Structures are given as structure tokens and as C-alpha cells.
Amino acid sequence: MNPPVKALIIDDEELARHVIRAYLQAYPAIEVVGECANGFEGLKAIGEHQPDLIFLDVQMPKITGFEMLELVESPPLVVFSTAFNQFAIQAFELNAVDYLLKPYSRERFDAAVQKVLQRHRQQSTSRDSIQHLIEHVRQHEPTLERVVVKTGSKIKVIPVEKIRYLEAQDDYVMLYTDDGKHLKGGTMKYFEEHLDADQFIRIHRSYLVHVGQIAQLELYEKGSYLLILKDGSKLPVSGSGHARLKQVLDF
Amino acid sequence: MFHPIFSHLRHAWAYLLVWLAIAGVHGFVLIRFYGLDFPTAVVDSAVSNGLFGGLGLSLWYVVRFVNVEKEGLFSILLTHLATATVVLLLWISLAKTLVTLFLNSATYPSFAEASLPGRFLVGLAFYLVIILLYYLVTYYVNFQEKTRQEASLNTLVRDAELATLRSQINPHFIFNSLNSISSLTMTFPEKAQEMTIKLSDFLRYSLAQDGKQLTSLAEEMHNVGLYMDIEKTRFGNRLRFEPQVEGNCLTGLLPNLILQPLFENAIKHGVYESLDQVTIRFRCSMERNFLKISVWNNFDPDAAARKGEGIGLRNIQDRLLLLYNRPDLLIIHRTEDTYEVNLLIPQFI
Fold it and tell me: Do B175 and A37 touch (CB under 8 A)?
């Protein structure tokens, strides 16, 4: 007999978790290894139990289901269980193993579980589909208001106002904030497109700067400038960066 | 309010034409019935009516100064009696001096003397007609303003109702509540039924709000109670609700559905974003003809604030301003980890 499928339920409402647990009782092949009431608990439990499947709510305190998934290195199969809005629904339609719109019937739930079991048997790499999902959601997201990062075992939620500047580092971006620097997966292009364009200026191929942090602009050599921030950091400014600064700061 | 004659070129022309007509009649009467020669009649008429036309313009400020709605009849009469006396004396003496200056006629002074009672009566009539017209204008403009205000108030109320409804019929509240009910049917059918009924009552109250503006605090509180019960079922221990309402408040009147957005905000910014228990306090007391309402909640200071739309609070502020004509009835106290909205609702007793 195959080992049971390990499932984790992550939802901030107890009654919502009950529904899933109750529906899952019909599946002896699936073992519920834990219930979590928020993304932090969820991350911890995922690390601890290495589940094959998670049932995940989107709107939860502190960090959303999406933000939590971003921090999981090899995501298991994910079934969203949410009452959330249309754009998310479209995203799920494209990529998730399945999405369940609250409230859902046992039949609807069974259909989702069948899909999960099928994928699990095929040992299909769910990772790609989840990566696609995250990408898709991120592309369609409105302006970023916060960024969630992981440092060691700690999870930090950084409001974008606290970011001084961002620096490109290969496939990552280094965020310089009021309390230290944090590495985050993603491209400069992504951050440039998703941070408020009135707040963050791309001054250089490798730098995005928070407008409120700018102290002064110095002529470095003929035709090249150096931007000095309030914390003393000095950043190079490219020609097009200078033009953008000029436009946003109106000088 | 602007001067009704200065503010429109058309009005100024009309005013001028009316005085020209009056002057014409006046001149005609002087020649025909008083046997004055043509030049004398023209000068007398032009000076007298020109002067009153000018004085008449300034009477507007007297009318604006004496507010019919605020001051007593006695004070109004007294003001106008004094003004009329001054205006008539000024008019008669100035007109006489000017005409004498222009004409240098031997017979005019005695004529002016003789026609004094007549001039006085005509002047009084002019005075009365002009201030009456000004009062009519004031009344008309006020009336229009009031109609416009009422119309915009109605729109606002409708918008507020719509906004309330929209926020209630959002996925977070309705569908999550229905999901809770779905869950309870399996474990506690009685509780599921209870919650279904509460949700229905709550929706019915919100949907049933017609044009009625004011409602009793008891009714609003009942609705808020339903809402909080439903949310408590969803969030369990994460939500604590502590209402504390003094008995004499229950019959107090307040604009309908004005409390709902405050509790929605407290849930949204407090409970949704916090891992720990959030307390929502509701206090109400009657203070010097004001219903003093406070909705207080604590929140997690670490939760990165998601930008609230602020529409709910702005709507409340707008409605209070239009209904009570005061901008200071909504006060917000915010600390590091608590948020309190105070409402002062005037009671007309």
C-alpha cells in the first residue's frame, strides 16, 4: 500500500478548516498532518511535515497565501480554498491544481481531491505550475504595498515605504531598508513595474531609489552624476536615470 | 450671497430701465399736475430718482444684515424704521440741495417745501418696495440653495447606502459567512440555523433602508449586534466585542447605517490583520443634547497597513456635515496600537 498523502490545512477561520477536515474523512489515503491559522504557522508546518498537499486560504493576517507560497522553496500541490476576488480566480483557472470558491459542496471538493490524487500519482512536478501561478499573479497584481522576505527562519513583512533603495544582484534584488538589507527573488524590471512609479525611480540599470530618501544629486564627472541618500549611500546615476529624476523631481 | 444687481449685467440694466421709467413718470407728473417748466421738471426728476436709485443699491446690505430667520420682528422693524428715517432725510435734503444748485431758480425752493409730504410718501413707498424685492431675492436664493442641498444630501445618503451594501456584499463577509454556515451544518445544525437567521436579518435591515434619514440607536445597535455575532462565529476567540450603552441613549436618533462602516473598519484593520485577539468596544452616552458614540479597537502595530480606502469615514463625515451643518462631529484618535472613532450626534429636543 502506498504511503498516505500528507495534507496541511491553512486557513485563518476555524470553521473553514472544519469543512475541509470533515470532507477529507472520506479519504483514508489522505492524512491531515496539521492545521494552521496563518501563513507563519503554515510555513513552519510545511518545513516540519513536508506535506504533499496544502489547502490554502488567500486572505489571512500578516501575510497572504500567495506571499506565503513565495517563501516555500519547493511548494507541494496547492488547492486554494477562498472567497477571494475575480483576478485570483482567473489565475487559479490557469495554473493551480484547483481552486475552491467558498462555500463549496462535497461534490466540488471531491473533484478537486481527484485531481490532486491524479497529479500525485503521476508524480508530476507541481512546482512548475505553482511557479507559473505565482508569476501570473505577480504580473497582474496592482501596485506593491509590501514585500515579504525570509531571513534565516524569520519572516519579515516590509512595507514599501521602509525601502530606501533596491540593488540588482543577478536573479535577486537586494532591498536596503531601515533595518538592514534583505535578499529577495525577482528582477529589477518586476520591481520597477510594480512599485509606485511616483515613489521609486530607476536611476540606473542596477538601482531603484525611494524618492523620499534622496538628499542630493552631485555632478561626478562631466555628464555623470552621483546620487547621495539621506543615510549617506552614494549611488551612480545613468543618463536615462538622470532624465527620470529630472521628470519626477521637477528640477 | 452676492449683490443681486451688481452681480449680473442684465439685472443692472433692468434696474436702470425701471428707474428711467419712474423718472419719466415723475417728470410727467411734475409738468402736468404741478405746472413745473420742462427743465425744472427734468432736473428734479433726474436728481431725485437718480439719488434714490443709488441709495436703493446700498439698501441690499441692510437687508443682508437683518436676517429675518434669526432676529425678532421687533428688532427688524426697529432697524428698518431707523434706516428708512436716515435714508429719507438724506434723500430729501440732498435732492433739494442738488436741484437748487443746478437750477438757481427762484420758485423752486418754495415748491420743494410744499411737496415735502408728497416726496416723503413716495420715498417711503420706494423704500418699502426695494427692501421687499431684496427680501424676495434672499428668500428665493435661500430656497434654491436649500433644494440643492437636499438633493445632494439625498444622493449622498443613497451613495452611503450603496457603499454599505457593497461592502456587505463582498466576498469576505458574505461568502465567508456562508462558508461558516456550511461548516456548522455538519457539526452544529442549530448554530447553523441561528447564523442563517442572523445573516438574513442583517441583510434585510440593510436592504430595507428607504429614504428614512434618522433612526433610533436601539435599532442601529440591534443591526450592529447581528453583524458582530456573525463575525464572532467566523473568528471565534480572535474577536471580542464589548458594547456599553447607557440606557438613556437607546431612544436617541442618528442617521441610519452610520455605525456599520465603523465596525466594518474595525474588523478589517483589526481582526483581519492580527494574529492575536482584537477587542472592539462600543460606547454610547448622552451628553448635553449630544449622543456621544465611540467605536474603539486595538490592532497589530506590526501589520503592514494595507491602504484603507477611507471612503467609509469620508461618507460619514459628509453625511454629518450635510445633516447637522457641522464639520466637527467625527473625531479620530489613533495611537500606536489602538484606533478610536468618536461621533457626536446632535439631538433636537
Answer: no
Q: By the CB < 8 Å criterion, does B41 face chain A? A: no
Average pLDDT over chain A, rounded to an integer: 85
Out of B174, B234, B273, the one facing A61 most closely (by C-beta) is B273
Q: What is the CA radius of gyration of chain B?
A: 34
Chain B contact set for A37 (CB, 8 A): 275
Check whether B172 has a pLDDT greater than 80.
no
Nearest to A83 among B171, B183, B238 (CB): B171
B237 contacts chain A (CB < 8 A): no
Residue from A112, A99, A41 nearest B171 by CA:
A99
Q: Beta strands of chain B (E only): which ranges?
A: 214-216, 239-245, 253-255, 278-287, 290-298, 330-334, 338-346
Tell me which range, A142-156, B134-148, B304-318, is most confidently predicted by mean pLDDT: B134-148
Say if the Cβ atoms of B180 and A62 lie within 8 Å. Answer: no
Interatomic CA distance for residues B266 and B246, integer angstroms: 22
Residues in a beta bridge with A1: none
Q: Which of B38-47, B246-255, B281-290 comes out lowest in average pLDDT? A: B38-47
Q: Do B303 and A157 touch (CB under 8 A)?
A: yes
Q: Which residue has the higher pLDDT, A126 or B195?
A: B195
Question: Dihedral of the CA atoms B302, B308, B314, B317 (nearest 10)?
Answer: -30
Say yes or no for a CB contact (<8 Å) between B183 and A84.
no
pLDDT digits (tens, 9 = 90+) for A16-44: 999 999 999 999 999 999 999 999 999 99
Contacts of B44 (CB under 8 A, 6+ apart): B26, B27, B30, B36, B95, B99, B108
pLDDT the model gives residue B307: 57
CB contact under 8 A, A159 and B175: no
Q: For residue range A181-199, list pLDDT tens digits in order.
A: 998 888 888 888 888 888 8
Q: Which three cell numbers stand for residue B240?
A: 471580542
Q: Is the preceding omega at residue A159 within 30 degrees of 0, hence cis?
A: no
Fold for B169-346, please state it: Heat Shock Protein 90 (3.30.565)
State whether ipTM is beyond 0.95. no
Residues B113, B95 contacting (CB under 8 angstroms): no
Of B183, B186, B187, which is closest to A16 when you measure between CB atoms? B183
Per domain, the residue ranges of chain B are 9-148, 169-346
Q: What would the pLDDT profile of A73-91 be if each residue is shown by its tens digit?
A: 778 888 988 887 655 664 5
Supply the pLDDT for residue A131. 66
Does the structure show a pLDDT above 50 at A94? no
Q: Which domains does chain A have, with CATH numbers?
A: 5-140 (3.40.50.2300), 146-249 (2.40.50.1020)
As a whole number of angstroms, the distance between CA B314 and CA B330 comes to 10
B301 touches chain A (CB under 8 A): no
Residue B167: predicted pLDDT: 52
Name the interface residues of A facing B (CB cutoff 8 Å).
12-16, 18-19, 22, 37-38, 40, 59, 61-62, 83-85, 101-104, 145-146, 157-159
pLDDT at A137: 67
